[in-house]
Specification:
The protein has 152 residues and is mostly helical. The chain is built from 9 helices and no strands.
Length: 152
């Protein structure tokens, strides 16, 4: 799928991305999938504390399931807890080195914590895997423009 993602355009790239996310979201256990869904539902409802609890339970029971870590990293980010989010992102990338979502999330944290050079490198790594990742090309252009000293 990742090879196809490199050359896909427009709607085809979007379909492949959704397929990858669906695959990443399969833990292999209905009970773990339920914890993932409950956490996502809590996130959608704006209850990050409950989401973090569900994702933590998921990670406790399925520590090799990268999407559990990624989901909790996202919840921590939304709660403004960058340190725990980065720790979880590191675990995601250990388990799934091609997780472009975790890479782009880490890049966003780097950008938000005034580390533009590192953010640019991470955004570019995500684009190397998924060249049509929404919003990332704009982030790269913005950081490259800022690095060159030009006004946007």
């Amino acid at each position: 799928m990742f090879t196809q993602l490199q050359t896909a355009e427009g709607p085809a790239a979007g379909r492949l991305e959704r397929k990858i996310w669906r695959e990443w979201s399969k833990s292999g256990s209905p009970a773990m999938d339920l914890l993932l869904q409950r956490g996502r539902d809590a996130m959608e409802a704006g209850n990050t504390a409950i989401a973090i609890e569900h994702f933590t339970a998921l990670i406790d029971h399925a520590p090799d399931f990268a999407e559990g870590w990624n989901s909790r990293a996202t919840a921590y980010f939304q709660a403004g807890q960058f340190g725990p989010s980065v720790a979880d992102i590191a675990q995601v990338l250990t388990l799934n080195p091609r997780h472009f979502g975790a890479m782009s999330g880490f890049a966003r944290i780097l950008e938000d914590t005034d580390q533009p050079d590192r953010a640019l490198t991470m955004y570019q790594a995500a684009l190397a895997i998924h060249p049509h990742l929404a919003g990332i090309e704009d982030a790269v252009k913005r950081l490259q423009t800022a690095a060159s000293g030009q006004e946007m």
